[in-house]
Amino acid sequence: MDKSKLFQQFVRFTSSVHQVTNDMTKEIKIENITTVQYKILEFITVSQPVTLSEISECLHLSLPNSSRELKKLIQSQLCEKIIDPNDRRKFDICLTENGTVLMNKVFRQLEINFQERIKNLTDSELKEVEEAINILQTKFFA
Hints:
Arc Repressor Mutant, subunit A, globular, two-stranded antiparallel ribbon, 142 residues
């Protein structure tokens, strides 16, 4: 196995993933929410509870920028800090009920976009896609 060739294939794949993600989300506009704030909400949705450091690291934001954007989302009542009872300096971040409702609405639209992209695949092809995602998830992204 040529690992260099595999790496190049991986780079093309991840670039394609970013492009498809952008294509699927670009039409989703949430009033008073910036793109960065949406990415934070999306990360919290799939990973909660999260820490400020995890948000910063995953989204390639500085801690001050992450903190500032998180503060705006908290003020908008879309997410909340859950203080660690053993150490009041530490906290986790979760969606509020309003944030959960909003992100469920967004994910329903994303699912419509996803269904549109896969509508012409056969059952056999859908099974292949499912298996490929499972393999990537367990062997590489875990």
